[in-house]
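Re: [ENG-882] Designed sequences occasionally contain unexpected residues at chain ends

Forwarding the minimal case from QA. Structure tokens:
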């Protein structure tokens, strides 16, 4: 466990942190979860302020950060662009119409202790790295830490909660454990690939045998895929890809199955999002659902995981979500957003 290595650091991607540093976050999160369970006071950030800038909606991220900073003795400011001076994105750069990020950051950083930002999807025209660049722009100007609350590529806070949940179920060493990470159908709004990336990345750090199942037209980011493969091998696990959902589920310990966008139908591969083509492509794979038949291929003790929100009867059946597979992990995974983010804040905001 590292004592001071994370102080003052930004938390933008998991790949900015060593395995030892991520383990420190997990162990701190579990300690804070025990404090919370026992009602032991843990006001580690007494009087400190977190600014939370949400360009997109949220249930779990907002509530876990807001409750978390309060439980640590601080206060969270919920900020929406329309309630600030930077109401809309403008052009290709990361400056804003009325007030630039640089101006906002330099104005508020003296008033508080951390800035957290969520920006992805339609807000940035599904331009793959634009949300990340906006978050990096916040970090460039801030001399207080900046936290990524999700962009199109990364959802590192979700990755921490996922890893914490797996650790509580299977322990710290996932060598010999199979983690199936699958694409599933959804006819709802487009869903980012970020949660798949970070679920697979954290699984690679603990040596799991990761199997990514997707229809052949779908893929993850090749650079992140290479990092997942490399980390899995370093840590005693493996990474493979299949177009058979059933093969991935066979004998799995974890089935993490949810929809994600088709990267080849979005910028920068396309000039604009090819929405109709994506809907047509997804329509070919309506049967890609995490249902009882598929979950029964997994081990008897297997768990179903999803970052939520999910589309019932499309991504996952209610029988799986509300049955033994979902109830073993899903709500712990959601609750761990609180404990994991309290750990991140306590470690970087000291
Ligand atoms: N998993 C997750 O980030 O949920 P919200 O979008 O509700 O915050």
């Amino acid at each position: 466990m590292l004592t001071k290595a994370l102080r003052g650091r930004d938390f933008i991607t998991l790949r900015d942190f060593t395995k030892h540093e991520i383990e420190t976050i997990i162990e701190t999160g579990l300690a804070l979860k025990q404090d919370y369970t026992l009602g032991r006071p843990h006001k580690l950030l007494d009087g400190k302020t977190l600014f939370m800038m949400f360009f997109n909606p949220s249930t779990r991220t907002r509530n876990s950060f807001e409750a978390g900073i309060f439980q640590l003795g601080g206060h969270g400011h919920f900020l929406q662009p329309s309630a600030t001076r930077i109401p809309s994105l403008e052009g290709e750069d990361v400056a804003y119409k009325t007030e630039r990020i640089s101006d906002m950051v330099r104005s508020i950083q003296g008033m508080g202790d951390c800035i957290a930002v969520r920006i992805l999807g339609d807000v940035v025209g599904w331009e793959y790295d634009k949300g990340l660049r906006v978050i990096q722009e916040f970090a460039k100007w801030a001399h207080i830490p900046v936290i990524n609350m999700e962009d199109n590529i990364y959802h590192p806070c979700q990755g921490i909660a996922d890893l914490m949940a797996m650790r509580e179920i299977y322990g710290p060493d996932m060598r010999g454990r199979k983690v199936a990470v699958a694409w599933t159908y959804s006819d709802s709004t487009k869903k980012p690939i970020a949660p798949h990336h970070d679920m697979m990345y954290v699984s690679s750090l603990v040596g799991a045998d990761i199997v990514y199942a997707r229809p052949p037209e779908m893929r993850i980011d090749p650079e992140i895929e290479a990092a997942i493969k490399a980390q899995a091998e370093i840590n005693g696990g493996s990474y493979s890809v299949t177009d058979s959902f059933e093969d991935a589920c066979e004998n799995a310990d974890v089935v993490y199955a949810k929809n994600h966008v088709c990267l080849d139908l979005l910028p920068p591969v396309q000039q604009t999002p090819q929405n109709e083509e994506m809907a047509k492509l997804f329509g070919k794979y309506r049967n890609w659902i995490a249902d009882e038949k598929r979950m029964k291929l997994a081990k008897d003790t297997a768990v179903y995981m999803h970052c939520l929100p999910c589309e019932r009867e499309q991504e996952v059946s209610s029988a799986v979500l509300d049955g033994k597979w979902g109830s073993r992990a899903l709500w712990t995974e959601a609750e761990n957003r609180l404990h994991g983010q309290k750990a991140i804040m306590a470690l970087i905001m000291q």
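QA comment: On inspection the terminal residues look reasonable. The chain has two domains: 14-153+337-349, 156-334. Proposing we downgrade this to a documentation issue.
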